[in-house]
Design goal:
Layout (H helix, E strand, L loop, with lengths): L1 H21 L5 E5 L2 E5 L1 H56 L3 H13 L4 H14 L3 H11 L6 H15 L2 H11 L7 H14 L2 H14 L4 H20 L3 H10 L8 H13 L3 H14 L3 H10 L5 H8 L9 H13 L3 H14 L3 H13 L3 H13 L1
Antiparallel strand pairs: 1-2
Helix pairs in contact: 1-2, 2-3, 3-4, 4-5, 5-6, 6-7, 6-8, 7-8, 8-9, 9-10, 10-11, 10-12, 12-13, 12-14, 13-14, 14-16, 16-17, 17-18, 18-19
Length: about 400
Amino acid sequence: MVRALVYLGIILLGLCVSPFLAGNKGYLYIALGDYQAETSIVFAFIALIVFYSLLQVVEFVVVWVLNLIIGSRLLPEKWRKKAARKHTLMGALALAEEDWPAAEKAMVKGAEKGEIPALNLLAAARAAQHQNNISARDEYLAKAELEPLAVKAVSTTRTRYLLQQGELDLARKELEKLNPTSKSKVPVLKLAVDLYQAQQDWQALKLILPIISKKQILTEEAFNTLSLETNIALLQSASKTNEQELEKCWHWLSRGERKQADYIAEYAIGLNRFGQKEQAIKLLQKQLKAAPSKPIFEAFSQVLLPADVEAKKQLLALESHFEDNVDYQICLAKLYHQNHDYHNAKIWWQKACYLQDDITNLYALADAQEHQGELNRALQTRRNAAKM
């Protein structure tokens, strides 16, 4: 555009100046070797403009011809790239429609001359995974891994697919390559949580819980549930090992966690298992006064034995405080049931069933009734339980 304006300006300038030069034609003498030429200044000026214009036209024609020649040689490559873009688009649409065979076929074709082959191959691997075509999936992932920038993405994808496939050991090896830390991306940390849970590797899960909390990967409710499951599993595992491991696990909990009823109950059961019954009962009684809850009552029913008369008396003395607490009724019913005192067990099971109709409670009541010789009532109780 600028060049055309310059040409136009030169022409207009020539038109304006030519009348003034007409009165003073002058002349121009050119000598080149034996060749001599003489002409007017006006003619020479116009000839120069024409020559320059012709030179620009020749340049344009030469450049156009060269581009045409070079472009014709590259046409097949352009066609292939255009076809690859078309296959990639068709594959993406098939993925959206969850037409996995069509998506796999289109993405593989698009990867041959595509702009981002690794992306096509990852999409093809996804389609193959949904078809349970493991060999094709692994082949696509291996090819995609050849792209240096796609190594971590491929490893993350492979870990996820192996986890879905149930190959937990292979998935763990792949996850270790990613090395989940506070610097890891959210998908890697989510995979770590799912895999550790599947493997029941509570130690590893405990180590990444602070990272999960800090990055808010899970909702508050989901995180609390996961934390509870992990800590309970660790306490149960430690209580089956030795007392030192139990103490280590207990002090691994935060100060706030050591005040929670679920953990206190599990810790007390572990202490009782290692002969620390008195300490376990004191711990449960202290928590019972502070905040009675279902885990504490369940722990009492597991810790106390027929010989623990004094502790039972203390529990019975609290009847007026917990007359509407079904967990308290169940706790005493279990204690009497363990002592084979079916008469009192039946009374407390009846109280529990009155407060809350539960299949387990009804079957326990029926069992106590049978031991008391009340077979018809026991049969009716079992029928009531079967209707629930």
